[in-house]
Amino acid sequence: MADFLVIVESPAKAKTIERYLGKKYKVKASMGHVRDLPRSQMGVTAENGFELKYITIRGKGPVLKELKTAAKKVKKVFLAADPDREGEAIAWHLAHSLGVDIESDCRVVFNEITKDAIKESFTHPRPINMDLVDAQQARRVLDRLVGYNISPLLWKKIKKGLSAGRVQSVAVRLIIDREKEIKAFIPEEYWTIEGEFLKGKNQFSAAFHSLVDKGKTVLTSEQDTRSILQQMNDNKFKVISVTKRERKRNPTPPFITSSLQQEAARKLNFRAKKTMMLAQQLYEGIELGSEGIIGLITYMRTDSTRISEVAQTETAAYIRSEFGENYLKESPRREKSTTNTQDAHEAIRPTSTLRDPKSIKEFLSRDQFRLYKLIWERFLASQMAQAIMDTISVDLQNGNVVFRATGSQIKFPGFMKLYVEGSDDQVDEKDKMLPDLKEGDEIFKKEIEPKQHFTQPPPRYTEARLVKILEELGIGRPSTYAPTLDIIQKRGYVTLDNKRFVPTELGEIVHEVMEEFFPDIIDVEFTVRLEKGLDHIEDGEMTWLKLIDTFYKEFEIHLKIAEQEMEKIEIKDEPVGENCESCGSQMVYKMGRYGKFIACSNFPDCRNTKPIVKEIGVTCPACKEGTIVERKSKKKRVFYGCSRYPECDFISWDKPLPRSCPKCERILVEKKLKKGVQVQCVECDYKENQQS
User: Fold this and answer.
1) What dihedral angle (degrees, nearest 10) is formed by the CA atoms of 258, 259, 265, 270?
2) Are 633 and 639 in contact (CB under 8 A)?
3) What does each C-alpha distance from 544 to 149, 172, 338 come to in angstroms?
4) How far from 60 is each of 12, 79, 140, CA to CA, in Å?
5) pLDDT (tens digit, 9 = 90+) per residue, 444-480?
6) To bridge 600 with a disulfide, which of 13, 578, 608, 686 should be the other Cys (CB 3.0-4.6 Å)?
7) CA dist 629 → 377, 530, 615, 616, 645 (Å)
């Protein structure tokens, strides 16, 4: 019989840890929280000092009964939930339910599920940290007070099923504000003059930079551009300056939660929710053949880039062995900690650098392998030497006109030999090579082309960009990013169009109401102050009751005004202009949980519905009768099909174009690449220049 009971959240984690601890320990899973505020009511009594009503979560009765039975049979119970506020709260609730003294050494925490880390954690258990518990309780109460007071108002005045949350309301505001910027944006014209030049047989590119007598010149019109072209004498240019500089580039720090979600979106096309699900699997442990279940990464909800000395030492030895001494950074760089960083955690890293991705690929799913490889490479690169680049700038003169060519060459790749961080702006990482150029060299023009451009509005938020801005503003915490993005889509406040957030009509209506009656809830600065208040509670500098009381006094005033003055908003159904195929009534546009759709106006007597299809102006190449429409698969991936489906079953993942291939007269399609769009034929090898 076991002497000790260890309680963790998940069965996978329990199985791994039990193998490390041996026969004296029995490890069981609580399956997350066992107690919570009731779903059917507020559970917070403001009039009675914010008294909280905790109940056993529905369905958790058998789990709790099993844990109580197991606890009675052992000498001591250890609570080993995750090492964050949420985990501390789970441990506190378990202690309450099982009669464990919270001031006893019952709490065990670890950042990685490896044999050494687990055994080490059990040598220094501690009491439950009530400051962490109170910080979690404060967040829970704030969310209850906001959600359970405002949501019923939205149900009554706008539509059933709506909700309002602190962080989600600010996230929606950021998306709506960006949409307003885009709509208000006025494009400005500008021109560039780009040229191809020859030195001997070597060709390179350069662009107009300046006039000798005026300095750097911005071209704002076609007239300006023609004036520049007229000032050039012939095809000969002279090299008037060559500037070479050595530039050093540092590796990016290892992943934290937000940067992992951003990079997985850029490089792997993963949604934040998927990234965290896979990271959880890697953290809890994967069966590696004869090795058994091994936790492959450290805890994935962290905002610290700190690395343990043990990990640094192991990684340094690996880099020295695999890449050579010169690829090892001179001394460990201490990563800068941002404000409110939970520095008790480490960065997200592999539990052992020696476990390289290729060696365990056979045991991982495709997506697990891709994410693990990303984490492994990023961490290893963070411990490698700087990259050294030679940057070159060359000025070419013809008469009064100066063109500039820039390029760079990797002198020493350093960390870039393994990993280079991605970019939301699709910056081309390829280094533009220039021929050997010296002052006085004569260069010949091959082709010069003026190009018209227009300034672009700020881009809509991708999931990665939105996570980044939430982190920069200090809104939410590592554990809240993915759920926030998920819920604003489930509520129908925003949709993803080409992987970018667009507010829905419903989202804009709810935002306007919130802006009028609850301006603090959607105010960025106010939300940031609340987040800082939660951090003060965690640090023991403030009581959770003081934060809640201060918030509620002002919130209650806004709530009473809203209850009296908020008018009912009727979302009218817009006619489609066609009749229902089932009953002949008018079809209308309806606003649903996932955006607009078409439905019969005779609902509920007639339940005929259909999705809104977007025609792209292309005749179906298969049947020649229907038109091509944009559709979405069950996984929300856009594809193109015939409007006559199922009579015609033509489909294409790539967007068909309204013109034929000049070589074989089959259809041309736009194929999306990582860095642009490629127009190509579906039949022959015809391709057009890639568009950015």
Assistant:
1) -60
2) yes
3) 20, 27, 23
4) 18, 17, 20
5) 999 999 999 999 899 999 998 999 999 999 898 888 8
6) 608
7) 41, 47, 4, 6, 10
With a CB cutoff of 8 Å and minimum separation 6, the contacts of 322 are none
Contacts of 318 (CB under 8 A, 6+ apart): 353, 354, 380
Which residue is it, tokens 């944006």? 185
Task: Give Cα 396 distance to the centre of its chain.
Answer: 43
Could you write out the DSSP letters of every residue in 424-457? TT----SPPP-----TT-EEEEEEEEEEEEE--P
d(CA 95, CA 83): 16
Residue 597 binned pLDDT confidence (cut-offs 50, 70, 90): confident
pTM of the predicted model as reported, rounded to 2 decimal places: 0.80
Q: In the structure encoding, which two tokens stand for residue 252, read together? A: 């990016």
Lowest mean pLDDT among 10-24, 172-186, 188-202: 10-24
Q: Which of 20, 25, 283, 299 is catalytic?
A: 299
- 146-172 mean pLDDT: 89
User: HEC profile for 246-298?
Assistant: EEEECCCCCECHHHHHHHHHHHHCCCHHHHHHHHHHHHHCEECHHHCEECCEE
Q: What is the spatial distance between Cα 322 and Cα 319, in angstroms, rounded to a whole number?
A: 5
At residue 340, the pLDDT reads: 44
Cα-trace Rg, the chain: 31
In this prediction, residue 424 carries a pLDDT of: 63
Q: Which residue, among 270, 263, 314, 262, has the nearest Cα to 112 in the 3D structure?
A: 314
Confidence of residue 691 (pLDDT cuts 50, 70, 90): low
Please determine, for residue 226, whether its predicted confidence score (pLDDT) is greater than 70: yes
Helix (H) or strand (E) holding 659: strand 655-660
Amino acid identity, residue 17? Answer: I
How confident is the model over 162-178, as pLDDT tens digits?
A: 888 889 999 999 999 99
Question: pLDDT-derived band of residue 344, with 50, 70 and 90 as boundaries?
Answer: low
DSSP H helices, 212-256, are: 222-230
> For strand 595-600 and strand 4-8, is the pairing parallel, antiparallel, or unpaired?
unpaired
Length of the chain: 692
Domains in the chain: ranges and CATH: 4-128 (3.40.50.140), 145-184+461-565 (1.10.460.10), 189-250+387-454 (2.70.20.10), 261-382 (1.10.290.10), 573-612 (no CATH)
Mean pLDDT calculated for residue range 124-133: 96
Query: At residue 569, what are phi and psi to the nearest 5 degrees?
Result: -105, 120
Structure tokens at 577: 């202009």
Pick from 306, 249, 311, 305: which is nearest to 116 by CA? Answer: 311
Residue 88 CA from chain centroid, whole number: 26
DSSP 614: E
